[in-house]
Specification:
The protein is rod-shaped. The chain contains 8 helices and 16 strands. The longest helix has about 50 residues, at about 190-240. By secondary structure, it is α+β, with helices and mostly antiparallel strands. Among the domains are: about 30-190, Nucleotidyltransferase, domain 5 (2-Layer Sandwich); about 260-340, Gyrase A, domain 2. It is about 40% helix and about 30% strand. Helix 1 (about 1-30) packs across helix 3.
């Protein structure tokens, strides 16, 4: 629980510092007119304005209202600073490590209930500009007062529509400490801006978590889809390779066609071995499982038995008459035979 509290304090300190830096930068660009109301020893207030013509030097505060001047015309559109006497505040010194200077406001807010009798919601508080104590630590002075006291002055001037209202005091050593500041709706409030930054951080963290979960889910889904595709590809490859052992697989059909279809080279090789040396083939036609040959030989009838004796041919017959020409060295024959597809010579 303490670690969570420390983390919250660090976040508050960081957002407060960033918001203060942004507001300070904007105020350097557009600086409103400042009206100071300073409490004096008598209990009255000295009025200090940029245009002091027809403005009373002192005003009183009675029954929750400032009396003695028309503050509506003076304060409207200006920044008003109410400077209260140091006797209204409780002062406490505080020493911190030097690296805590950038987060001073957040650290003070987290420890105000330990340093004062009030909690952060019951008090207005601030700290002076830190002073270095050597190279490792810094020192600051905290001023705090009951919030009810400060709000009585704030409510007295809020109806005059200033751009900002600040409660300020000074330490006995003359250090100026701002303990409260409230800005109008049109101005930028560091507290509201800090809360907005915290909300943005929370939304960014939630978006990051949701994005991480969505990315993990999509990665798992894509991985499962990839595994399914790889499984289907493996099955298709197994079918193409004939791993199922069926006679209807593509490889089995190709293998069957290889041995059932006659090969031209085997037919030529077989005929060259069967025919005698006095036989010359001048024509050769392959059509499906039939072969037709024509040529010249000394003894045409003897070719039929020779062809049928081969294991590659059956049903050898003459499909045209055998003729003899005076210019031919023998008989001209035309034989047709059925091919037996044995793809080996």
């Amino acid at each position: 629980m303490s670690s969570l509290h420390s983390l919250r304090a660090m976040v508050d300190a960081w957002t407060g510092t960033v918001a203060g830096t942004i507001v300070a930068g904007l105020e350097r660009i557009v600086s409103p007119r400042v009206v100071r109301v300073v409490e004096i020893e008598s209990g009255a207030f000295a009025l200090e304005a940029a245009k002091s013509e027809n403005v009373p030097k002192e005003i009183a505060f009675e029954n929750g209202k400032f009396i003695g001047a028309d503050l509506a015309q003076i304060v409207r559109g200006s920044r008003i600073e109410i400077v209260l006497r140091p006797t209204r505040f409780l002062f406490r010194p505080l020493e911190l490590p030097a690296r805590a200077a950038d987060f001073l406001d957040g650290i003070v807010r987290a420890q105000i209930d330990r340093l004062t009798p009030w909690s952060a919601s019951e008090a207005v508080f601030g700290c002076s500009v830190p002073v270095a104590l050597g190279s490792e630590s810094i020192s600051t002075e905290i001023a705090a007062a009951p919030r009810k006291l400060a709000m009585s002055y704030v409510e007295a001037v809020s109806s005059f529509h200033p751009t900002a209202i600040a409660i300020v005091t000074e330490t006995p050593e003359g250090k100026r400490i701002k303990v409260f500041e409230q800005r109008s709706r049109g101005a930028i409030d560091p507290v509201r801006l800090g809360r907005t930054l915290q909300a943005v951080l929370v939304l960014a963290a939630v978006a990051a978590v949701l994005g991480s979960v969505a990315a993990s889910y999509l990665a798992d889904s894509l991985s499962a889809r990839q595994s399914e595709l790889e499984r289907q590809i493996t099955q298709r490859r197994a079918v193409l390779r004939g791993n199922d052992g069926g006679e209807r697989s593509p490889l089995a059909l190709l293998e069957r066609r290889k041995y059932e279809s006659p090969a031209s080279v085997i037919v030529l090789e077989s005929l060259s071995r069967l025919l005698p040396d006095h036989t010359y083939v001048t024509e050769l036609h392959l059509a499906g499982n039939k072969v037709q040959i024509g040529g010249v030989t000394r003894d045409a009838p003897s070719l039929i038995p020779l062809i049928e004796q081969s294991q590659h041919f059956t049903r050898a017959t003459f499909y045209a008459p055998t003729t003899r020409s005076p210019s031919d060295p023998g008989e001209r024959f035309h034989i047709e035979a059925q091919i037996e597809p044995r793809n080996a010579p």
